[in-house]
Amino acid sequence: MEHRKLYHSCEVEYEGRPLLVEGPVEPGRLRDMRMHPDLDAFRRPDEQHEALVEIAELPEGRIILARDGSTIVGYVTFHYPDEMERWSEGNMEDLVELGAIEVADDYRSVGLGKTMIRLAFEGGQLENMIVFTTEYYWHWDLKGSLSNVWDYRKMMEKLMKSVDMIWFATDDPEICSHPANCLMVRIGKEVPQSSVEKFDTIRFRQRFMF
Question: How far apart are CA 75 and CA 65, in angstroms?
């Protein structure tokens, strides 16, 4: 399976200075950066930093990040689904998960999430992949203006739609456990029909719900 990792970068202005958005970033360069202390949604910042390096080392793994100097202030991860999850059952080489997206609190006003995700798809590098993300309301940072799960769901859906990811139905119990949870998917233009059909069998275990 060809994993195309085509480096791209751009700048986003923040308080009169540029932030660099770049990726996929190589693990060696990642090690020389530091995490913003507010990037703690999934684990402690230093532990998350190490996790990003490990993902970057994977053949299919890719890290897109935003940084202020040498400080990482936002990131998006792409990798194969965890082997404990149903999405890994088909052992599909062309099924990749958009696993995590996080932006430090003070940097959330300049569209870094959308910029990072769009950059990940630059140059057609994921056109041979099915990219999916599972959105669970219990992972969301529900505070401030987005304290309502439905407002946050709309925000996440709009974010994913910016790269043509769309809502897909599934009978996955975790996603079905709350109506705000959802599965969003982008099927690349070069993905064969056989892979699409295999993904359909993973999405639905109960044939009558297909």
Answer: 4
Beta carbons of 181 and 171 less than 8 angstroms apart = no
70/55 Cα distance (integer angstroms): 19
Strands 71-79 and 182-187, how do they pair? Answer: unpaired
Each residue's pLDDT, cut to its tens digit, for the chain (210 residues) gives 889 999 999 999 999 999 999 999 999 999 999 999 999 988 999 999 999 999 999 999 999 999 999 999 999 999 999 998 999 999 999 999 999 999 999 999 899 999 999 999 999 999 999 999 999 887 777 665 556 888 888 888 999 999 999 999 999 999 999 998 999 999 999 999 999 999 999 999 876 544
pTM for the model stands at 0.92
DSSP letters, 2-70, are: ------EEEEEEETTEEEEEEESPPHHHHHTSEE-TT--SSS-HHHHHHHHHHHHHSSS-EEEEEEETT
What domains, with CATH codes, occur in the chain? 8-209 (3.40.630.30)
How many Cβ atoms sit within 10 Å of the Cβ of residue 151? 13
- Going from the C-alpha of 66 to that of each of 43, 110, 157, the distances in angstroms are 18, 11, 21
Q: Are 77 and 99 within 8 A, CB to CB?
A: yes
Residue 2 CA: distances (Å) to CA of 66, 133, 140: 26, 21, 33
